[in-house]
Design goal:
The protein is an alpha+beta fold. It has eight helices and 23 strands.
């Protein structure tokens, strides 16, 4: 039934594509006569017709006969692809598949999909939908910036990357991707209103990139493969491009992507340069810089409380904060450094007031949450005593309608336990939190 429907729909649409398409002029149409029926306004292609053409283009791509974007639109490329397929199977070059030819094509495409383990999956950090040839790239690794599927010999790689950029444009993204990573030789570029495509060579391998953005989040599908695998991977690349849905409607799983450069606050806790900071802010950094002091090493982390231990070397005159405080139950002062964009590029230390609340999991939350840049700040109670580290936690759901980030308070007791477990002598006695907090800068790429 499907095969016959395909043949009928393709024939009807093909005929319409090459007929006169100028719309009739009102008032100039011939009047109906007994021998001449009234002219009929051509109807738009039905949903069933488009669905069949989508399926046909996809199947042609899987057998290596169609190399265009799978849109469901009739085109010369599609008709020529049908003829090439007919030529390959020894049929007549009509540009219209008969039911038997359509059935054979569908079965051949299905077997090729099975041979590579084709499956449409949801990328775990973003909720993006994409087709993955699981048998070709069985190894999956994931971090906050996306996922990577790799073949055992690394001859094929599939990467879904995500990042945040301020006011991205399609043109700017294209220029960035042409030059990053270095050494790309771009042979093909297509820029559409809602996505772009690049392909070419990177070293000895072929690459294909399709990207788009929504708001300040950029999502890019990259495929890298050895030319020797072209016969197998080529059709899969087209199918993957067609299946890629970077921003599905509805809630999307996972936190926002990590920024290329991220700012937080740290608290100096020892005279020899130990600093407590937000683990998430300092995760995956190529370099960590403490403003005014230079490079810092990350020595340890506490995943349970999302704390990180940093260390700077050779610093003089440090004034570590005394950590002998207790548990606050009322308002606290959050002492930290806002993101440079929020203070005209400055790095001033400021203090904000927040109330202590109880979270769903039983932990302490801050109301309102601290602003961007303050994650890792010192929380000080009404008596001027240290009461914990303030963290800005991203929401579990990313996408339109997502709730705002939540402020969390890691207790002073948990901070002292983390330092003790890592043999840090927290020898600070200063009550001046403003002198003990520093800006933490993470550079990831």
């Amino acid at each position: 039934m499907r095969s016959m429907l395909a043949a009928i729909l393709i024939f009807m649409t093909s005929a319409g594509a090459y007929a006169q398409t100028t719309p009739p002029i009102p008032g100039n149409q011939p009047k109906p006569t007994p021998n001449r029926p009234a002219p009929q306004t051509p109807s738009k292609p039905t949903d069933a017709a488009r669905a069949e053409r989508l399926s046909l283009q996809s199947d042609l791509a899987w057998v290596g006969q169609y190399n265009g974007t799978i849109t469901g639109d009739l085109s010369d490329r599609m008709v020529n692809s049908i003829k090439e397929y007919q030529k390959a199977i020894g049929g007549k070059l009509t540009g219209v598949l008969n039911p038997q030819e359509r059935s054979v094509l569908a079965e051949t495409a299905r077997k090729k999909q099975e041979s590579v383990g084709w499956k449409v999956v949801t990328e775990p950090t973003s909720g993006a939908r994409l087709g993955i040839p699981g048998k070709l790239v069985p190894r999956l690794s994931t971090d906050a910036n996306g996922s990577r599927w790799v073949s055992p010999a690394r001859t094929v790689e599939v990467i879904l990357s995500r990042r945040q950029e301020a006011s991205p444009t399609m043109a700017n993204l294209v220029e960035q991707e042409k030059n990053n990573p270095a050494g790309r030789r771009v042979d093909y570029t297509a820029v559409k209103p809602d996505f772009f495509v690049l392909s070419g060579l990177r070293g000895s391998k072929k690459f294909y990139v399709r990207g788009t953005f929504r708001g300040d989040e950029v999502r890019i599908l990259s495929i890298l493969y050895d030319p020797a695998t072209e016969n197998v991977v080529g059709p899969v690349v087209i199918a993957m491009s067609s299946a890629f849905n970077a921003f599905p409607t509805g809630p999307q799983a996972g936190p926002p992507p990590r920024k290329t450069v991220e700012y937080g606050t740290g608290v100096i806790v020892s005279e020899d340069g130990a600093i407590v900071a937000d683990r998430a802010i300092t995760d995956g950094c190529l370099a960590i810089t403490i403003s005014g002091y230079g490079h810092a090493d990350r020595l340890a982390e506490d995943k349970g409380h999302d704390l990180a231990l940093l260390h700077i070397y050779g610093a003089q005159g440090l004034r570590p904060l005394g950590l002998s405080g207790g548990l606050a139950t009322t308002d606290v002062a959050i002492v930290g450094i806002a993101h440079p964009q929020n203070q005209g590029g400055g790095s001033a230390v400021t203090s904000l007031t927040a109330a202590i609340g109880r979270g769903e999991g039983g932990g302490s939350i801050l109301i309102p949450p601290p602003p961007v840049g303050f994650s890792g700040s010192a929380a000080i109670d009404g008596n001027g005593k240290f009461t914990g580290i303030a963290l800005l936690k991203p929401t579990v759901v990313a996408g339109p309608g997502a709730p705002p980030a939540q402020g969390m308070l890691v207790s002073a007791e948990s901070v002292r336990g983390f330092l003790k477990a890592n043999h840090v002598a927290a020898n600070g006695h200063s009550p001046d939190a403003k002198a003990a907090v520093v800006r933490v800068i993470c550079v990831r790429k």
